[in-house]
């Protein structure tokens, strides 16, 4: 059990039978009435974000999340197969479970799997990945007033806004949290 007064960003807790990670929190001490903690929590099972208010000093369950290194092997229809790096056990996750992550996953890529008491909740991607540009319009000289961008499609199918000097075949560094261009690799 953990007190809501000890909340930290990134802490995983169990509230009403669901597993949440703390995205944001604020201790509030009104002039009249009892103090409370206002928090923004992300449900790790379905990805929804909720705002909850707790009384100061209230205790809730702490969820012990396991992170294991796995390798993404291949896709088979709607199933995506992973292999545990230590035990070499294979398991699969559905496209619905990996909706955002599929924009960045390449075969043989190493990621971390998040699980709680044997239940797989999802995967943790690195903060950035290198992806190759497969389709983009050519940059036209003189079109560079200030920060001009164009659309580029990378090897995973993700569309990214990139500067005009990027060409097909270039390898880019892409931020996995926001899906944005960082730089050329």
Automatic annotation (TrEMBL):
UniProt name for this protein: Elongation factor P
Pathway info: Protein biosynthesis; polypeptide chain elongation
Keywords linked to the UniProt accession: Cytoplasm, Elongation factor, Protein biosynthesis
Location(s) in or outside the cell: Cytoplasm
Organism: Paenibacillus ihbetae
Database matches in PROSITE patterns: EFP
Record-annotated Elongation factor P C-terminal domain positions: 129-184
Major location category of this protein: cytoplasm
GO-annotated molecular function: translation elongation factor activity
Domain annotation Translation elongation factor P/YeiP central: ranges: 67-121
Keyword Cytoplasm among UniProt keywords: yes
Pfam families xrefs: EFP, EFP_N, Elong-fact-P_C
Cellular component annotations (GO), alphabetically ordered: cytosol
Top-level lineage group: Bacteria
Entry-linked HAMAP family: EF_P (MF_00141)
Family named by the database record: Belongs to the elongation factor P family.
